[in-house]
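hey so u asked for the seq, here:
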Amino acid sequence: MFQLILSASFVALLTLFAPANLSAEEVIPIRKYSGVLRQNGPALVAPKSGVIVGQAKFAEVWQAWSVGERMPEIDFKTQMVLVATVSGPNRTLSGPLKLVDSDLSYRVMSTKMGGPGFGYLLMLVPREGVKTINGQPIPEPAAAKKNPVDENPVADVIKVDVIG
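ran it, structure tokens below
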């Protein structure tokens, strides 16, 4: 009887400390950028999805947050940027990134100081094999705005010379 209880306890302990999914693959960020801004306004440019998949949005975030380095060139066909923000002048960290069945999952941690501003974390990661992030589909890149002049045939264009 004692051996049965001991065996059951050992199995329970193994289950408790065993990895949740043996097929999980750890994803190592290519590069991380983090910082704290003392104003709240720039946080508004953060993508609601928490993912940047295009150069225009990345440039907007990079400039608004004054990351302080020269903006890197990113191949958004093979890479994407995960974005995390926390309120207050707090440092932001990420737990391990795991890829399980094409879902990239991660958690964000931060310090807990009150006050104005926000902390941010940008993580450049590979796109290969990733279809969802924390269970949500990867957003499509914003379509480039078309120039109305390009849509109009030449016959609809009127040339106007203004003198004076």
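Residues 1-18, 144-155 have pLDDT under 50 and may be disordered. The first helix runs from residue 2 to 17.
lmk if thats what u needed
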